[in-house]
Amino acid sequence: MVKRRSIARFVIMSIIALIMLLLTVCSFTIPFTSTNYNGFINSIPLGFDYASGVSVVYNAEKTQNSDNTLSQEIESTLSKLDRFFSYHGFSEYSIKKQGDDQIKVEVLKEQYSSVMLSLLESPQQIFFTVEEASDELTPTSYLSSSDISFAEVSYDQNAAVYGINLTLTNLGKLSLESLKSQADIVGSDTVYIYLDEINSSNLYGEIAVDKLGQTMFISSSSASNTSSAYSEAYQTASNIFVGTFAVELSQQSMTTITPKLGENAWMWTLVALLAFIVALMAFLWIRHGDLGLIANLILVFFVSLQFFFMQAIPFVRLDLGGAIAIFLSILLFVVSQIVILERISKEYSIGNRIHVACKNGFKKSFWRLFDLHIIALVSSVLMLLIGKYTISYFGGVVFIASLVSFFCLYVLFRFMLNSYLPLNSTKPAKMKLYREANVKEIKEEVPSQADQKTDSEIEGGQA
């Protein structure tokens, strides 16, 4: 009965592993639907190293009267462009100065949007006045686009309307104080907001003086909470932010760029990965026999789960750094398996029975592997927090691998090994377990002096 249960477990786990492997690598049309399934590997978004992109070159002209040169104004605009693309959800992009009067922008082809990039050519100036414009009066602006550091769409819960959150620069704080002082002088408790030009037809909205601050919410007079109101506020916020640039951009050219590593780089990376995994599997089987075959089965689970989470979690994108992280994470997992298997061999060689050796193998390797995975996990979190692009993607892969690896080792691997023991607990040669002829088998689970010393050292290390 016990052997039948163990055989059933192996059959079920093998079928699950095969299904997961097919879901990882295969692409097909889901039956009775028109939906295409691409497999976990093909669903992982790729970076510039493996994916094509779009390169757009903009001419830059000064828009503000300042003592800075055009080159200096372009440099100040680059940081705002970086914030623009980050805010609009571009996961990987490149922004750099080209020549004396141009800016080159590169984005992934899958994220290319002509509408989004056209926003860079649609700046809107914003002006705050304390008097309302009319045909007879063009009031003075005391706070304008040069005082704004960022603009983003927002939602006012109290008024239930979409609008724009404006954040002022440090110099903008001084302009804000001038605006408030002028409002006191004219006795106005309302500030008027204009876009493009200060005239009666360009009034965007109003805001009470007591609601002015370094960060403030503004909305149009027709603001609402509909989807069209959100789209309008989103575009207006983008246009206002672009209007804060020190230069005006006009598109000169647009070209498609090939992957940095070549058109078929990702395919060859997958071929190398497959050869790498096969080599590791062969080593495990040759070195550890049946135990190696069990380790190979768990390796299939590890690789499948890793690719599943990589395509499911949004902060992972594969470039060369991410690919290297995949190779290293698989190597880390196999090394962890070898640590357990070698410990099992050691336990058997000193006289423990097979089932005791397997139990001690997991138990006595736990803290060593726990420390290894914690170090990898903490390092990956730091890379995710402070890194960008390649470093961040590397950290994301390692983060996923660390969690999946420990689960596969101490849940799936131990479960399958315990399921195997009822099938073979008397033939150590099948598991490549050997001991010297003069070593007597320990009848009870009593650790030797050497093992007691090892355990005390482990406990001492924990302390």
How is the secondary structure organized here?
Elements: H1 2-25, E1 28-29, E2 36-37, H2 39-43, E3 53-62, H3 70-87, E4 93-98, E5 102-108, H4 114-118, E6 126-129, E7 143-144, E8 148-156, E9 161-168, H5 170-186, E10 190-195, E11 203-208, E12 215-218, H6 227-242, E13 247-257, H7 265-312, H8 320-349, H9 354-386, H10 390-420, H11 449-462
Helix pairs in contact: 1-7, 7-8, 7-10, 8-9, 8-10, 9-10
Task: Give a description of the structure.
The protein has 463 residues and is of the alpha+beta class. The chain is elongated and about 110 Å long. It has 2 domains: 2-31 and 263-462, Multidrug efflux transporter AcrB transmembrane fold (Up-down Bundle); 53-257, no CATH class. It is built from 11 helices and 13 strands. Helices cover 52% and strands 17% of the residues. The chain has helices at 2-25, 39-43, 70-87, 114-118, 170-186, 227-242, 265-312, 320-349, 354-386, 390-420, 449-462, and strands at 28-29, 36-37, 53-62, 93-98, 102-108, 126-129, 143-144, 148-156, 161-168, 190-195, 203-208, 215-218, 247-257. Helix 7 (265-312) crosses helix 8, helix 7 (265-312) packs across helix 10 (390-420) and helix 8 (320-349) packs antiparallel against helix 9. Strands 4-5-3-13 form a 4-stranded antiparallel beta sheet, with helices on one face. A 4-stranded antiparallel beta sheet has the order 7-6-10-11. The chain has a 3-stranded antiparallel beta sheet with strand order 8-9-12. A hairpin with a 6-residue loop joins strand 1 (28-29) and strand 2 (36-37).
